[in-house]
Write a structure and sequence with these properties.
The complex is a heterodimer.
Chain A (H helix, E strand, L loop, with lengths): L4 E10 L2 E11 L4 E5 L6 H8 L7 E6 L2 E2 L4 H7 E5 L10 H11 L4 H14 L15 H13 L5 E5 L7 H16 L3 E6 L2 H7 L2 E6 L2 E6 L1 H7 L3 E7 L5 H12 L4 E3 L2 E6 L4 H11 L4 E8 L2 H9 L16 H5 L7
Chain B lengths: L16 H21 L1 H27 L2 H34 L1 H6 L7 H28 L6 H29 L3 H17 L12 H9 L1 H14 L4 H29 L1
Helix pairs in contact in B: 1-5, 2-3, 2-5, 3-5, 3-6, 3-7, 3-9, 5-6, 6-9, 6-10, 9-10
The chains are: A alpha/beta, B mainly alpha.
Chain lengths: 333, 268
């Protein structure tokens, strides 16, 4: 089976920093591949190498069947790039931005205009078509950015953290667009620090940390890898949180997380639950909630890397759901 | 939804120079159409030169040359040089903006000639440059500036300013690539070009300055270029100052173009 994106042993160093320490990827056509990892994990470097913007120090890669170094020009005809490092011209209007790309791609002027109009309509930007992009909201700008990368009808689309800093509604809109593109046969490589995003969109996920792929599989496979379940305990009195943590640590042998009014711990054997209940009772801890649930990708990430996914500080002009903000703290010092 | 996969046409292998030129023109269009949305830039390109001509002519003219009219004849070619050098900074400023905002990466991910983003920007800035020179000459003529060497002199002066600024814009490109943010390009340009243009004979005759300063003023390329323009526009020696100006331009380009291109390759 031929792959839309294939990378073997990609290495990239910046001075003393190793951004990519031997990355292998294989993405079948028409699928979404999620590259998941914290800031500085090497996600953007990987995208830049695959999108011909950066040359790897070692290893090689093909995109749409062409070598990213020796056939870069052919690769560029097959790809679209959107993300934190590929942006629209803020001083131009939405229409002008798309017209610029269309003309650069060799479309005759009337066709470039049609294409711009069509994409602006598809992405609900027709009302803002004549306004400079700098007046757009965060979500509108991302949509324009994405539209700009679709002018050439790419076979392979790179989305580098497409929803970082977006409010939930804009994020959902962008997700819908990506799903539609995949239905139309586009192959998508998506980088994200949001585990939920990878879970929602990706057929396959590579978890990347310090320039290395540390786990690969479908979202379900990755969740299964960590033993699958976690125990959440919420004591009635917040004063009891440390005591609860001590008890579950003792019984499960794993390190619990204390978050707000919950203690969460990964469990491999559900049989431990009755013991936990008994011990908590003996210790006089009144419990409001005690639940066993499947691991989220968040926990998968934690157990794979030993630290939680970090977040970038987000744009001031965007709303960030509270649950995301809550994840910003690092648990590893 | 319209984003269907392209039909499997064989992609081209190289960009021909003609297509590269089209890319350059399209990208130059992009830089020029920006002015439409940012009228401040047009003001910058227009009001500032006019203001300088008016201020210098009427405030300093009497004191330096005895009358505003005579001073205008002496100073206008010089102010064209100063304005041209300041204007070269827009190249570095715009380039830095593209680099820091990610526009440059977007362009590099497209199947276009590798040199076209830079060439398009320089072409657009040359157009802006020509507009400023035209405006300065027009205002000067309204105030009484006379071109003695006719149309050929005018064309020669235009061509010389544009060629020299093209060479000097490589300095600007280098600054634009090295600077971490656009504001730093402006600060650098200001602190370099202000003393460079004032320690010349563009506003004041060299003979009035102290000896140590005269030594520098006489070799300052700004002086040489101003003298060449005076020769072309209002009479005086032409061949030697024009030749020297072109040599300076060639030397600046020979040093800074490779440095700028190397810095750009390192940055992206």
């Amino acid at each position: 089976m031929s792959h839309s994106i294939r990378a073997e042993g990609l290495v990239k160093r910046f001075g003393a920093t190793t951004a990519l320490a031997g990355v292998d990827l294989a993405v079948p056509p028409g699928t979404v591949f999620g590259l998941l990892g914290p800031n500085g994990a090497g996600k953007t470097t990987a995208v830049r190498v695959l999108a011909t913007l950066l040359r790897a120090d070692a290893g090689h890669a093909t995109v749409a069947g062409y070598d990213v170094v020796h056939q870069a020009h052919q690769v560029r005809q097959a790809i679209g790039l959107t993300g934190q490092y590929a942006s629209v011209d803020e001083t131009l209007t939405g229409t002008e931005n798309l017209l610029l790309i269309g003309r650069l791609l060799g479309l005759p002027k009337p066709e470039a205009k049609d294409r711009a109009r069509q994409l602006l309509a598809d992405f609900h930007l027709d009302d803002a078509a004549g306004r400079a992009a700098k007046t757009y909201s965060g979500g509108m700008r991302r949509r324009l950015d994405l539209a700009a990368s679709l002018v050439g009808r790419p076979q392979v689309l790179f989305l580098d953290e497409p929803t970082t800093g977006l409010d939930p509604r804009s994020r959902n809109e962008l997700w819908d667009i990506v799903r539609q593109l995949v239905r139309d046969g586009v192959t998508v490589l998506l980088t994200t620090q949001y585990l939920e995003e990878a879970d929602q969109l990706a057929d396959e996920i590579a978890v990347i940390d310090h320039g290395r792929v540390i786990a690969m599989g479908t979202p379900e496979e990755l969740k299964a890898k960590t033993g699958g379940q976690s125990l959440v305990v919420r004591p009635a009195a917040p004063d009891h949180l440390p005591l609860v943590a001590t008890i579950v640590r003792e019984l499960t042998g794993a390190t619990p997380e204390t978050e707000q009014s919950n203690v969460t711990v990964p469990v491999n054997d559900p049989a431990v639950v009755p013991t936990v209940v008994r011990r908590l009772d003996e210790a006089g801890v009144r419990v409001i909630e005690l639940a066993l649930r499947s691991s989220s990708l968040d926990e998968v990430f934690l157990s794979l890397t030993g630290h939680r996914a970090e977040q970038e500080p987000v744009d001031d002009d965007s709303d960030v759901p509270a649950d995301r903000v809550a994840r910003t703290e690092r648990t590893r010092s | 939804m319209t984003a269907t996969t392209a039909p499997a046409a064989a992609p081209s292998r190289v960009v021909s120079p003609g297509v590269g030129l089209q890319h350059t023109l399209t990208l130059a269009w992009r830089s020029l159409v920006q002015i439409k949305h940012n009228p401040m830039e047009l003001l910058d390109l227009s009001i500032q030169p006019i203001m300088f001509v008016l201020l210098f002519t009427y405030v300093f003219g009497g004191a330096i040359s005895g009358s505003p009219g005579e001073y205008l004849t002496f100073m206008l070619p010089g102010i064209i040089v100063q304005n041209a050098l300041f204007a070269t900074m827009t190249t570095g400023f715009g380039l830095n903006n593209d680099l820091t905002k990610g526009v440059f990466d977007r362009l590099r991910s497209l199947p276009i000639a590798r040199w076209s983003p830079l060439a398009g920007r320089i072409l657009a800035d040359t157009v802006k440059q020509a507009w400023s020179v035209f405006l300065l000459l027009a205002v000067g003529m309204i105030l009484g500036f006379r071109v003695d060497n006719g149309v050929l002199g005018l064309i020669g002066a235009f061509a010389l300013v544009l060629v020299f600024s093209l060479a000097a814009s490589w300095i600007s490109v280098l600054v634009g690539v090295v600077a971490s943010e656009p504001e730093k390009v402006q600060i650098f340009g200001f602190t370099l070009i202000f003393p460079l243009t004032f320690t010349s004979n563009i506003f004041v005759p060299t003979a009035t300055m102290p000896g140590w300063l005269q030594a520098w003023v006489k070799v300052n390329p700004v002086t040489i270029l101003a003298d060449a323009l005076r020769g072309l526009l209002t009479g005086g020696p032409i061949a030697w100052p024009v030749a020297q100006s072109l040599l300076w331009g060639a030397a600046i380009a020979a040093v800074f173009a490779p440095l700028a291109v190397a810095a750009l390759k390192r940055r992206v």
